[in-house]
Every structure is written in structure tokens, then in C-alpha cells.
Amino acid sequence: MSSGQNSGGLMSSAGLVRYFDSEDRNAPTVDPKTVVAFGVLFGVLIQVLNAVA
Amino acid sequence: MSWKETAEPVLTRMPGVERPEGHVPFRRKLAWTGGILVLYFFLTNVFIYGLASGGGNDAFGQFRTILAGGQGTVLQLGIGPIVTASIVLQLLGGADLLGLNTQENPRDQALYQGLQKLLVVVMCVLTGLPMVFAGGFLPASPQLAQQLGIGLTGVRWLMFGQILVGGLLILFMDEVISKWGVGSGIGLFIIAGVSQRLIGGFFGVPGVTANPGFFYNWYTIIVGEQQLGAVLSSQGILNLLIEPGQILFLFTTVAIFAVVVYAESVRVEIPLSHARVKGARGRFPVKLIYASVLPMILVRALQANIQFLGRILNSQWAGMPAWLGTYATSGGGTAEPVGGLFYFLAPIYSYQDWMWFLGTTSNPPSMIIGRVFVDLFIMVVGGGIFAIFWVETADMGPEATAQQIQNSGMQIPGFRQSPGVIEKVLERYIPQVTVIGGALVGLLAVMANMLGTIGAVSGTGLLLTVSITYKLYEEIAEEQMMEMHPMMREVFGD
């Protein structure tokens, strides 16, 4: 069965944002590690700026 | 040419998080979920660079509990933009204006997903701009403006950049959890915020948390530092039930937990049997809370946006007519409506908003009753309407479900095997159950707010937390079953 984000049998428990299996291959993708690393670096940068100011 | 062809080049190129190839082990999923949660808590403690000391008042006001994020931090926007974008999508999808078949057509799925992202980015900008540039929500620091020589406007743009990045980070963090972790990021951020407040409400100690918690209050009562007074006098009963005894809050909190967990198990079960394999039987459950509690966020977010608009108008427009809204600044520094249209449209947040006999509100009882009725009406009717839209756009409606049952090779015993027939049977239950469930959840949320909850987490926050946690539990149980039997992965279509 390949009906979207449906992994829980027949009941689909969609969140507020829905993600489907079939994504366009044209779309640029980001590694999840990059998201986390960016978040951490961004937070630390702002903290440092706050500390300097 | 329809809008689809025009928008396709943009919508299909929205950047997203990579999808894992093959099965992600359960431990790895937990690690991703935990990691993102830690990052989220870290970011809610990073204050915006360029914010004047003093902080300003919260633009979301009392809605902060369900919209996550933190006032004055880089996560100022929280999940607000995602929820607002979702409202727009639900309304468009519910009225079938999009013309997208997200159930079968892969191209439409990609378009839907792109549209969803684009709308979130637009909403980040639309809610971020007034927060920085209008009103006293995020005051810019004059010292920094002088230091950098870019003026206050320059500092404001810097701040806007930070909350915009924060808003987009929330979107990507949600995507990481949806693809690599357990549950959804939005659900996780909501329960993280509400749980934090609940724990503060129970175990808070003065000096560490803003308000003393339930257990500390009772400690002081037992030791004798605080007096309840004679329990049979009216003042004594009030002290026991509300402050500092908080027995009423404890009762509401426990009652909401119990009602939600019970309602999760109330369902209409439609028997199914396999068309070819004799003896293979199953049931399709139509749960009382079929559309889950999530549509409730949408109603509350609508109210939050209306109140946000009211605050902007109040701060920018000196000649605002009294019928539209009169504002008074409360102890917390946040301007609250005390009269006019915005007063009646404001939901009841706590017992202080309506218990006129305590002297916590100066409005006459007739106005208070009017506001309670407006709130009840919005929540019950809105809850029902958004539940219907939700079921339609999430492909949980009779037509979509009938197709899914048909595709899995099942049929309803005693009926012909065709999606049309299954749809007819499902139509007897799904719409009715959806509306009743949505209205019931709305009613519960208003009642919980009126009676008060431990830690002032708000009725909607508590309802959301309990039902998201329940869903998370079900999902984890399913994951573990798959870990134990690799065969099960095929059954669940992984």
C-alpha cells in the first residue's frame, strides 16, 4: 500500500504538515544532520553576539 | 491553463529534508526525536540579538501555550505560521478550490507539499513583520542601533531576519522528525511546552519558577505559613478550590486526562473480511475523536490571529472606536481588551475572566455571559466545521477511506465488493462522528479554560497534549512490534 504518509494501517494520522512518499526529484534536498548543525550554529552565533553586545 | 501548470516549477522545487532509504531502526528514530527536542529547548532560550532589555509583551498573549516557541527568543514565531498556513490550506481544500487529488496522483501530492511550504514561508513573513515593526511586541535596542550606526530600522530588520530563520528552522525540524523520527515535530513542540508548564504548575518553587506550584502551596498550608481560613465559610471554600488550594484546577486537569483517554477508545467498528482469503477478518474503527484534536488548534489560532490584529490596531491607531475595542494593560504588561468587539471575540482564558463575584474582572455579568456564549459558539461550531475540513484534506473522508479499504482487498461482509458500496456504508458514520467529536472537543476546551488547569496550560493545550501523547504511544507500540517481527513491516507497508 503506497497511499501517502499512511504507515499505520488504514487510519492515517496526518500531522499539521503532510509529507508524501512521491517527491519531485527536481527538489533540492537537505541532510537532516545539516538541519541540526545549522540550528545549533545559529543558536550559538546569536548567543555569542548577545554576549559581546 | 490552470494554476497548477503556472505554479508547478516553483512548488516542485521547494527544498526539503532528505528521505531515509529503507527502514530506520527504532533506536535511531528515538535519537533523532530526542536530538531535535534538545535543539528546540536550546533555541527557546536564545534571545534575539538587538532586543531592548525589558523584552516587550507577548504578541500571542495567552495563546503561547498552544503555539509553542518563546517570547523574545529566536523561536518567537513558534508553530504560528505553520498553523496559519494550515488554516488557509484547510479552507481551500475543504471547499475543494485546489482541485488536487492527494490520494492517488503523485504530481498533485508534490504540488500540495510545495504549496504547503510556500504558504508557511509567506506566513512567517506576514506574522514576523508586524511583530517587529508594529507595537511594543519586540522593542529594538537603541544602544545597539547607535553602536552599529544602522538606526532603529536597521536593528529591526536584523531582528526580523532572526525570527524568520527561527520560523523556517521550526518547519525543517518538523520535517526531520516526520521523516526520521517518531510522530510529528509540531506535536512534539506542543507537548514539550505544555509538559514544562504542567511540571512547573505541580512542582514549582518560588525563586526557581515564576509561580509557586501545587505541592509547594500545600506544603505552606500544612506547615501553617498560609491560612485557608474556616473551610465552611465562603472565603475558605474559595481558598481551598482556587488559590492557594487549587483543588478545582487539579480536578479539571485529571478530568480532561480521563475524558480524552476514554474518548480515544470510543468507536464505531465496521466489520471487514478479505475478499479472497476466507477467514481473514478485520475491523475499521471510526473513532469518536476521528479527526483528532488537531482541528482545535486551527480554531484557536484563528482566535489568536484576531486578537493579534486587535493588539496591532490598538497600538497603531489612537482613534480606535470604542465599539471595536478598548484595552487595559494588565499586571503582566500585555494589553487585554476590556470592551468592544475584540472583548467579545476573545476566548475565556481562565476563571479570572468570568468569576465576577471574586472581583477579578470589572465587567458586568451580562457582558461576561455574552463573551462566554461567543466563545462556546466559536469553539463548538468551529470545531465541527474544521473537523469536517480536516477529514476531507487529510484523506480520511468516506470516499478516500473506501478506496483504501478496497485497495487492501477487504470488503464489508454481506455487501458487494465495490468502493461505492463501502463509501455508502461509511457515509452513515464518518460525517456524523466527525462533527460530534469536533464539537465535543470544543466544549471540553472551553470548560477546562473556565475552571482552570494546573500551571495555566489552557484547556486546548491540555487536550492536545493528552491526545498527541496517546497517538505517540500507539505509534511507538507499532514501531516496537515491527522491530520484533520484520515480517510486520510488510503488513504495515513500510
UniProtKB/TrEMBL annotation, chain A:
The keyword Transport applies. GO terms for biological process: protein transport. Keywords: Cell membrane, Membrane, Protein transport, Translocation, Transmembrane, Transmembrane helix, Transport. It is a single-pass membrane protein. Residues 1-31 are cytoplasmic. The chain crosses the membrane at residues 34-52. The keyword Methyltransferase does not apply. Pfam families: Sec61_beta (PF03911). Component of the protein translocase complex. Heterotrimer consisting of alpha (SecY), beta (SecG) and gamma (SecE) subunits. Can form oligomers of the heterotrimer. Belongs to the SEC61-beta family. Involved in protein export. The function of the beta subunit is unknown, but it may be involved in stabilization of the trimeric complex. This is Preprotein translocase subunit SecG. It comes from Haloglomus irregulare.
TrEMBL record, chain B:
Residues 38-72 form the Translocon Sec61/SecY plug domain. Keywords: Cell membrane, Membrane, Protein transport, Translocation, Transmembrane, Transmembrane helix, Transport. The keyword Nucleus does not apply. The chain crosses the membrane at residues 30-52, 72-98, 118-138, 150-173, 185-205, 245-263, 284-302, 368-391, 454-473. GO terms for biological process: intracellular protein transmembrane transport; protein targeting. It is a multi-pass membrane protein. InterPro entries: SecY, SecY/SEC61-alpha, SecY_CS, SecY_dom_sf, Translocon_Sec61/SecY_plug_dom. Coiled coil: none annotated. GO terms for cellular component: endomembrane system; plasma membrane. It comes from the Archaea. It is found in: Cell membrane; Endomembrane system; Membrane. The keyword Cell membrane applies. PANTHER family: SECY/SEC61-ALPHA FAMILY MEMBER. HAMAP family: SecY. The central subunit of the protein translocation channel SecYEG. Consists of two halves formed by TMs 1-5 and 6-10. These two domains form a lateral gate at the front which open onto the bilayer between TMs 2 and 7, and are clamped together by SecE at the back. The channel is closed by both a pore ring composed of hydrophobic SecY resides and a short helix (helix 2A) on the extracellular side of the membrane which forms a plug. The plug probably moves laterally to allow the channel to open. The ring and the pore may move independently. Component of the Sec protein translocase complex. Heterotrimer consisting of alpha (SecY), beta (SecG) and gamma (SecE) subunits. The heterotrimers can form oligomers, although 1 heterotrimer is thought to be able to translocate proteins. Interacts with the ribosome. May interact with SecDF, and other proteins may be involved. Belongs to the SecY/SEC61-alpha family. This is Protein translocase subunit SecY. It comes from Haloglomus irregulare. The gene is secY.
